[in-house]
Amino acid sequence: MIREALHNCIAHQDYVLGGKINVVEHPDRLVFTNLGSFMPQSVEWMLEHQSPPEHYRNQWLIEGMVRLRMIDQIGSGIRRMFQTQRERFFPLPDFVIDADSMSKPRVEVVISGKILDAKYTQALMHAADLDLRQVLLLDRVQKGLSLTPKEAKSLRSEGLIEGRAPHYLISSKVADWTAQKAKYIRNRGFDDGFYKRLVIEYLQKYDKASRKGLDDLLLPKLPEVLDAAQKAHKSRNLLQAMRRAGVVERRGTKNVPEWRLKTTK
Predict the structure, then answer these.
(1) pLDDT digit string (tens) for 193-228?
(2) Which of helix, strand or coil describes residue 99?
(3) Does residue 64 share a domain with residue 160?
């Protein structure tokens, strides 16, 4: 993988720009950068097409590297990098293409040395009905990266993801493959009826509760994909819905409210 990434940088560097090829080592990843625009239409295009691009920036250099066996086959490097990582159950490479800087555009490739989840990766990469593009998109979901509406629609139609943008989740179908059912439930959460029953049982046992007490009860059980503010908002909405339905009532002062089950007269 390291050799392939480095040789790609050498082959496709725009030497007219007079820059350097950089390899930066971090504790959990390697980052390769080279100057020059990305010649193919996209990384996805390279993964989907077996034929090489019709034009290269450094044609003679590439032909020389092929003869020296630095490159095995013209046009196959990127796809081979992804296939290699897939076969080894590692996270897929990340390409960052900076085309906005027209004076010195650059391409960055990040190779992760950190396993996301060994069981997940092994099961997912062996799923026979997934093509490389689907694996690429699911890898982005695992990394918390964004999907386009078209990409999300494609995965959703195959039953591979759930949730709303931008917080997509690996679906229960994939969770079954990967023995991550518990994690799936933690991310998906439960229906509102489950949380309301928790509140009722708490108030039946302890008669009353402060807002903090109910937050301590509910927040740890809300979906892990929600941040702290979203969890607090969800808890508040649940209590207000129960109050409007006449299940609970709020007493005490504005600064020190108490929640109780509503008694019928």
Answers:
(1) 888 889 999 999 888 999 889 999 888 888 877 788
(2) coil
(3) no
